[in-house]
Amino acid sequence: MKIKAAVLNAMGIEPPYAQSKPLSIETVELDPPGHGEVLVKIAASGLCHSDLSVINGDRPRPTPMVLGHEAAGIVEELGPGVEDLKKGDHVVLIFVPSCGHCLPCAEGRPALCEPGAAANTAGTLLSGARRLHRDGSPLHHHLGCSAFAEYATVSRNSLIKIDPELPLDEAALFGCAVLTGVGAVLNTARVTPGSTAAVVGLGGVGLSSVLGAVLAGARQVVAVDLFADKLELAKKLGATHAFNASSPDCVEQVRAATNGGVEFAFELAGSVKAMELAYKITRRGGTTVTAGLPPPAHTIPIPQVNLVAEERTVKGSYIGTCVPMRDLPRYVALYRQGRLPVDRLMTGRLQLADINAAFDRLREGKAVRQVVVF
Ligand code: ZN
Ligand code: ZN
Predict the structure, then answer these.
(1) pLDDT, tens digit, for every residue of 324-368?
(2) How far does the centroid of ligand 2 lie from the alpha carbon of residue 106, in Å?
(3) How many A from CA of 83 to the centre of ligand 2?
(4) Which ligand is nearest to the CA of 48?
(5) 128 with 86, same domain?
(6) How far is the CA of 112 from the centre of ligand 2 (A)?
(7) Which ligand is nearest to the CA of 102?
(8) pTM value surpassing 0.90
C-alpha cells in the first residue's frame, strides 16, 4: 500500500531543520505483514531525542530510514501466525522487539534481546525483512517501528496491547519516554520510599523519571537542567528542589541541599557533562544510573578509587530495564489513577508536514514531548 512517511535520507544535515528539512515527507510503499507481523494504523507518534540523535548523526543508523519509535495505533491487519491480537486492538509500539527465546529474553531482560538488537542495528524488522520501499529500493526501519508514517508493518513482538480507553496520543508516550524514564527509577535503580533521588536532564524521559521518583516515594527529588522553564515544570510535577546546571556551583548546591549527595542520581541528557554531574551529586554508597544516549565515541572519566572506597555503583538502563508486557499495563493503570500524570509532558500536537520545525523546537530545548497525530 502507498503511505505518507517521514524519510531521513542522510544524517548530519545542518539545522535549522525547518529550512534544511532532513526529514522529507514522501509517499512510499509499505508491504503487508509477513509471518508473525502486524499492520498498524498509526494514531500518534512522539518526537524523542533519540530520533534527533539519528538526524544529527550522534546515533548512527543506516539511511534512508523512516524514523519514529514512540507510537501508538490500531491493529489493521494480522500476518500469518498472529493469533493473540485482532483488528481494532489498540497497541503501543516497543522499540526493541524481543524474540522470547534468546538468553537475555530467557533471563527476563527483553530490553537486551540479541536478535532484537541486531535487527535494530541493521534497520530491519525482527524477521530480517524490510517492508518499506521507495522506487523499488528498500528503506530501513527505525527500531522496528518507523512510526512517523500513516501505517507501519511491525513484528508482533514490537507491540503491547493496551486499554482502548486510553487516548492514543497519550498512549504513544508510554512506548519510550515513560517506559525508559519511570523504568530507570523503579526497575534499574529500585528507588525506595524515603530515599533521595536526582534527575539530570529534563526532556520527556527525564521528567518521566521525576514522576517515577515521586511515585516511588523519594523524600527528596532534585531536578537539574539548563532550562529554567523545565525546572519549573519539574517542580510542578513534584520535584522538591531544582537547580540550574549552568550555575558554576551546581554540584555544591545539590550536595548542600541533600546532605552530601543523593542516593540515586539519573543521567538522562545523553552527555558526558551531565553524567559527570550526576556522578558528583551521588552520595557515598549511592547509585548513578545513565539512560541518556551519548555519541558512541564519548567516554566518561571516573576516579576508579571512588567506586571502591565509596562503594559507588554506576548502572546503565535501556528501556528502563522494563519487561514491557509486565510494566506498560502497570504504568497505564497508574496514569489512569492520576499517580503518574504523563499527559503533563505533552507540549504540542502537530501534523506530519510540520515535523522538521518541531525537531528544531526539541533541539533548542523549547519542547518536552510533541506528538505527530494522524
Ligand atoms: Zn525514544
Ligand atoms: Zn530475545
Answers:
(1) 999 999 999 999 999 999 999 999 999 999 999 999 999 999 999
(2) 7
(3) 20
(4) 1
(5) yes
(6) 7
(7) 2
(8) yes
